[in-house]
Amino acid sequence: MNAKIRMRLVLAAGAVFVALAVGLSAQVQTTTSTKSGAASHTTKVVSGEIVYINGNSMIVKLDDGTLRHFNNIPDSARAIVDGKEIGIKDAKVGMRLEKTVTTITTPQVVTTTKTVTGKVWHVMPPNTVTLTLEDGKNQTFKIPKDQKFNVNGQMTDAWGLKKGMIINATKVVEEPITVVEQQAKLTGQMPPPPPAPPADQPILVATALPEAAATPAEPAPAALPKTGSELALFGLLGSLSLAGAAGLRFLRKMVG
Q1: Domain spans of the chain, in order of start
Q2: What is the pLDDT of residues 13-38, one digit of tens each?
Q3: CATH code linked to domain 41-105+182-189
């Protein structure tokens, strides 16, 4: 029995809370608008060559010489390589990749307007005001700094509020934000095919050059030419005789 009673109390409290939340949301009207400014675009291009692949991981050597390790690349990732869409399973070592990242930055202003209408039941300036809303229920609101109230077309602050006044209060909050969106495009080129082996070339065959015909030696003359003379022979014999005589004279002197 106690458990049933507790359950009913919990359900009743929940129902009251929901009803209160719906009532409050119905009494305060909130509108939100967004105004966008001119967007700016920046583009960054990074390129490199695949130097290692293992399953869904690969290492790319960027053009500046640094190595980037990409781990656990999903199978759904796609790149346009030589005009064809491929996945990580089709990537090859030596493939060139180029990633173009476009960043779009858009300034925006979000304007939130809250409006409430009711009869002043109690006011504690400059902090709070309690209003009797259209459904006859009272609700206490915290008064924002510098908040103005519209009373029969006249604007006044919290100090000018009196019990029984019908007021309309509007709170406008403008919040500047920046929306950043990135668009990435990955393209590439397959590695060039390996060079074809050289075509078969004929083997050079060494051939012996024909020997030059031997020039026949000129036969020795059988006799001296007619221009020869015996005078030179006689001169040689005379010289030898004089040398012999001089030698004998020298020997005699040595013996004597």
Answers
A1: 41-105+182-189
A2: 443 333 333 333 446 788 999 999 99
A3: 2.40.50.140
